[in-house]
Protein 1
Amino acid sequence: MTVIAEMLSYPFLVRAFAGGILVSLCAALLGVMLVLKRYSMIGDGLSHVSFGAISVAVAAGWAPLPVSIPVVVLAAFFLLRITENGRMRSDAAIAMISASSLAVGIVVTSLTTGMTTDVSSYMFGSILAMSRGDVWLSAVLSAVVLGMFVFCYHRIFAVTFDESFAKATGVNVSLYNILTAVLTAVTIVLGMRMMGAMLISSLVIFPALTSMRMFKSFRGVVVSSGVLAVVCFCIGMTGSYVFSTPAGASVVLVNLGAYLLFWLAEMALRRRIRWQPLKPGGKRTPAESGPAPKTARRWKTIRPEGERSPHSDGKRP
Amino acid sequence: MSTLITCRHVDFGYEDHDAVVDLSMEVDEGDYLCVVGANGSGKSTLVKGLLGLIKPLKGELTVAEELRRTGIGYLPQQTAAQRDFPAAVREVVLSGTLSRRETRPFYKRPFYSADAKRLAASCMGKLGISELKNHCYRELSGGQQQRVLIARALCATSRMLILDEPITGLDPSAIQDFYRLVRRLNREEGVTVLMVSHDVPGIITQANKILHLQQRVLFFGSPEEYRRTAAGRRYLGGEDG
């Protein structure tokens, strides 16, 4: 308690907390959509683009945010469009764009100011980066993201689960995709300076992946991702203050810890289910005692009448 | 028996090429129409055209008023991302009710109405998946996943279903279950079915109309006639000439 009170007596830490909580919340909610649509790497790509844009802006003496937000939004559009057209694989496109913009950023920086602490703080984040304006922008951003998730929740589900069906039933799919791209871009730019260009993508993917280990419904995953992101951020920040470690990296490590915790919990849960005898005789058939406990459980519980055994489908790897 | 969809000399395609040329056919109420053809023969383009996702480039596409109002139930090809999607069956089926267009376009309900929930429950009942409703979609077998997706499509409309290669990845017994299910929906519930499939020998015993597409229409008519055509014999293989 005293540690927290002490931390909150520094105005820059209050700003970092407020901004960071809002940004991690947005990143986690959008991350659920991105991870499930197989765009996990987009956060990584966009943060590198943002790094390039900020380096150029700093070199030219412009304000970083007004330059990098439009550039990153454009990059996000471009990446989503490539994937939709299917001309190029999206992972290849992201890798290409992120490496090139990183290279642009490094070349521009070394030609002008040289590799200074500024550059290092963009790469790995700085707790001092959150200004008052950033906090306000984060507040607006999270209001928009939360509003979208509350009022359009079912459409978001439909678009994430099955774009073609959603399109056929009259949901404006491209509007949601554009909105996701813009919001993701703003989230990345805002979070990047605190978390660092190399680490910000973890805010996008970790909460969603962690929640997917335990929760079986979309609503569960969304809610749990939001809560987890905020909790992990607060623990990470406090840890970074107590142990004097970099904030971004500490938050990522806490996220990793949460993932491992959920993973262990999932294993334990499965184990417990497997220990229950599946048949009154307790004798397992070869299929049931196989290495996949999930299928063994399914065998027992959720096979409706008339449905063949799930194994005979041959769809599950 | 009324006609639901009529195509007269319709071309579908994208800016650089026409995928379907000079298509004329009609789908009547209660039909079980099967669209066959090689890969890239325009089957999926036709489906998109019928769903209204792309506009015909030429010709005349007439969709019955009742179908325009309720929309068409659609079962798209499954994507890899869906197979491990964390969603409860209930959530997936309920998402089908979104197509009941709301009268107020700018107001989006944060929750489903009681009507939508009743509808979803009855659709799940029809497909025998009521007891799965709280299970996770990714833990179901392929056959069960298809049932869930059909229930979702039925939530959108109970008039007509378009199934795009629904049996891909199912094993033989699940395919037979699936055919039985679709036939039951077609005969007992009066659902008009349009199915795109590669399984010509399997489908010919089910459908009452066959459309063989190779950019142009190679054949449109009953399965009995189809067996006698050159195209049909080639697809059915082993049939005597």
Note: Confidence is low (pLDDT under 50) at residues 281-317 of chain A.
Protein 2
Amino acid sequence: MDVQALKQKATELRKATCKMIYASKTGHTGSDLSCTDILVALYYGVMHQTAATFTDPNRDRYIQSKGHAVEILWNVLADRGYFPKSDLKTYSQFNSPYIGHPNNHVNGIEMNTGSLGHGLALSVGVAKAAKMDGRSYHTYTLMGDGEQAEGSVWEAAMAASNFKLDNLTAIIDHNGLQISGKTVDVMNSEPLKAKYEAFGWHVIEIPGNDMQAIVTALETKPVAGKPTLILADTTKGCGVKFAENKAEWHHKVPTAEQYQAALDTFNQELKEGAK
Amino acid sequence: MSNEGKKAGAVMCDVLTAEAKKDSDVLVLTSDSRGSGSLMPFAEALPKQLVEVGIAEQDLVTISAGLAHSGKRPFAVSPASFLTMRSIEQVKVDVTYSNSNVKLIGISGGNSYSVLGSTHHSLQDLAITRALPNLEVYMPSDQYQTAALFKYLAHSDKPAYVRIGKKVLDNVYPDEAAAFSQPGHANILKQGRDIALIAAGETVSVALAAAEKLAGLGYSATVVDLVSVKPLDTALIDQLCAQYPALMTIEEHSVINGIGSAVADRVAANGGARLKIIGFPDEPAIAGTQDEVFKYYGIDGDDIAAQAVLMLS
């Protein structure tokens, strides 16, 4: 897929995600929209993994450490054929496997996440196994910037560097907001670039909702012996004006009017993109 | 003839070294604990199959889960106090909820670290591990049981927690076959008629000593080695309830939510029986050698026999 097609796909999936959240009246709208472009770049552009190869031991791995942004992940996986799209009608309903965080009873989910601060260490284990077995797969994990306050993240950051895991790429969805407000006010974890560099990582900073920049960063050859961190400066709620850069949209559900406004925006973008 | 056996850690190391030589996916992960885990011979024999994560127990568990997800068979070895408290959320999420084939080995368990204080004691580990779905929980009582158990674990695909201590254990069994058969199967070590003493791990020898003392006083006690704290041998507990006027549990654990509580849950579900729970009280343990501390809290052959006589008179 070229970058223009990836952008179109991102808009389609933002629309599907908002639709699912509006219908179910639950979800992390702002968090989903913040990382949509990153997931699209991974699943439609860069990652060597498809529904058909999900059990292949040589597939690339994706572990979503910020598990709460699951609505976009469910929509990406459905669109990529990991399970029927119609399954998502059960999202957050009684006995559905499509719950509010990634669940490994669903095809396409590697490990359960949702409690923050686990994904990086899981990815260290997965990437370390690749090194031990001489496999060439790459492991990707997506974290939040609020998540950087978890001590276990830094244990794992240290281990990734210690084990020289140049087959591991962590991405921070660096939107500057978390549930209680600005990340720098809640618990300032900055400067993240300098901190990860001090921990022995190769750090790439990008505008995190810019599809071309994301793809370029993900396709950059790793520095030998170093794990890569992509510090993606994103906008929480990206694509829906009334939700952008507002902490309360972390897990807010749109009203009927807001939902309609979002749909109008997405439809307009899709129409223009199709030209 | 001396009945002295071997340290559980040394037995674990022997078994894991042999298993790991046969299967390169068998790994040992340590948190700066290869020495205290008696794992130096493993580290020397199979350096590529030992993953050192440093003093980072949360990472120890989660990295093990990531390795297990990729086909490895990791044994995460760390002091039981840290493994089951510092890392318990990682155990819950990454091991039991994700159903990762990680074997969690709590070394220097219970009161093993004695005078190092409560920071280093694991007297609540059974309470928390046996409450987690999808996790088997074991406490081996001698060298043969430890060996048989670790051979089983090396081939099992299920998550498990094992607590071992630092002591050189007395031999309880003549061989491995007699010591361990399968999850959820307890062993009757001695058949009596008056009372059943139920123990696991290092207190099995204490229960046997109590039975011997009781014999001298004219009472005959059955002694049960649970081995498998979870799954619990509920059929045997039911049988003991029907057969004996009194049961006693003896454990190196808080009396809250340990072996006694596990047995009590089954006893209550079964219509009830007289049951006395012997273990550590609900307080930080007193300082002393492990033997001194056991004696202080009445986890000792003479005191248990006296308690049994009181129950029966």
Note: Residues 4-170 of chain B form a domain with the Rossmann fold fold (CATH 3.40.50.970).
